[in-house]
Design a protein that fits this description.
It is built from 24 helices and 15 strands. It is an alpha+beta fold. The protein is globular.
Length: about 600
Amino acid sequence: MQYAESLDAVVQECRFLLGRTAFGSLLPDLGRSIPPLGYLEFMDTTRHRAMLGYPIDRGAQQLSDLHRLVVSELGRCLADPDHAEDASALGAEQLSSDPYVRTLTDLLVRASAQGDRLHLDGILWIEIARTVAAILNNDAGIVDDLRRHVPLEAAKGEKYLVDLLRLKGTQPAQHARVKNRILRSLLARNDFAISSVSEVVGDVYSSPLYRALVSNRLPFTEKPDGLYAFFDLKELFAVLDFTIDRETWTQLHGVLSGAAQVAYERVGSGQGGAADRYLVETFVTDELLEKAGRLEIADPDSTIGDPDDFAGRVAWLLCVQPAAAEYLLAHIDQIGDPKALAKKLSLDKELTRRIRNPKELRPLAGPFIEVCRTLLKWDFFNTLASFLRAVERDPTGRLTHDGNSLRSSVVAVDLTPGRELYSPRRHGTAVFLQIADFTRKAGELLGEQSDSDFVSLCIQSLMQIRRTIGVLRGEPRYFADGLLVDSFPRALDALRYVALFRAAFERNRHVRSRPWEDARANPFAEELRVGLGTGDYFEVTIPGGGLTDQAPTEPHPVGQVMDPGPAARRGTKRHPRGRRDRGVRPPPRVPDPGRPCPT
């Protein structure tokens, strides 16, 4: 699955985050660092067809080391309220012998060996954050995991988890300090592993996804239900240092929600003023309405009234969106009735005074919105973690998920030491499509006096089917000299793609350059050569190079930068004038790592 499609799928499942635009404003540098989602296809298609996700075979060694580290540090923190591991005093010799560091470093090196197209290290970091959060929140099944992975420490671990839960109720501040201290010890070991990987790969290893996870912190510490179902912000404000306290933020959110609900209802009844209409027309999008419809929040501090009230849900969700909250804070006097809201919410005198004058709210706007941004980022990371699909191997070696057998085409990330982290072996069908004489004609037609817009339109019309190659589960591999190489896991999808491409080729032999002009002959639609090859191949990623029709900064599978050779012309019809495609730089030759293209 392509990066953009994967990101869309994750954002669609978020509870609070609205759309790609909102994601881009929150995490602008993260879009291309999200691991591309795959399909888990089931053998029994009568019960299941396929699901999106990251199939992951959780390694017992990695889980054992991580459980042992967290439980050990938890015991020290509970035994001594003042205990805090001095991370700066940890020496290289001590850290290099740490079992968790050694296992993590090995996994990161093997992930780097696969290249950064799949971002396998990102899947590993998500798994670590998810596991730590499950331990610290005593999630269902975590005790069984302790007994399975650290049997000698399981009894102590169970006691520690009960004590930690009790501490949450009696001393919430100390509970938050314990979680932060455990996280600090974990991150110190992660940093050492990262620096060790840099020495191996010969470059500075850096994962934007990991940095974003650490910056937010909540994926390591918070239980999803605490924010999704109950919206319990006590832990949020205890773990992170904000310049606004929880009571003020909650009351202010209640004020904005109350005003937004009034505005939404006014506009719905045709009575809203200019500020009301702008709020609703600008920020109440179809996606917000859809997500508000499936929002289930039992907020103990909520002021939206009946949780079944749809207008209340819309207002509640609207007020955790930074842009909408900023608008409301600046125009609260025009949208809501400050006096009525203050009385209804039993606000303290200071906040009551402030909401009567938007200028008084300006100092609170930045801190309020920062909390909103933190919540939205956590929502994205937690949703991303929900796509991890644990798989196991049955006695025959076939992968299963929840007891259901998966097809052999499913490739899992295997965290077990000694195994391949991600097998490069594939079986599929390659499609070779060559537009005859493409380069010569392009060189002649794209002169200074030519109608370059028409020439580009002709090329685009022939290539339009390739834009939707993902629908057929295919991947674009190569394009140069008028030759396209694409691959598909299933031969049937490859045949469908060829049929669609040829149909588009025939349909666009003539192109209209203007709606009111007659169609003109498409100079590139003279002849299309087609070849197919099915078999096993290796898919190895190398940096740089790649397709001319994709961003040069994106690494590509080796099949995208190799000369397909005779396989590309197998079963094709030779052009009567011979191959005359010149002027486009041929793909560089690289060492053959196996069979890079299906043959």
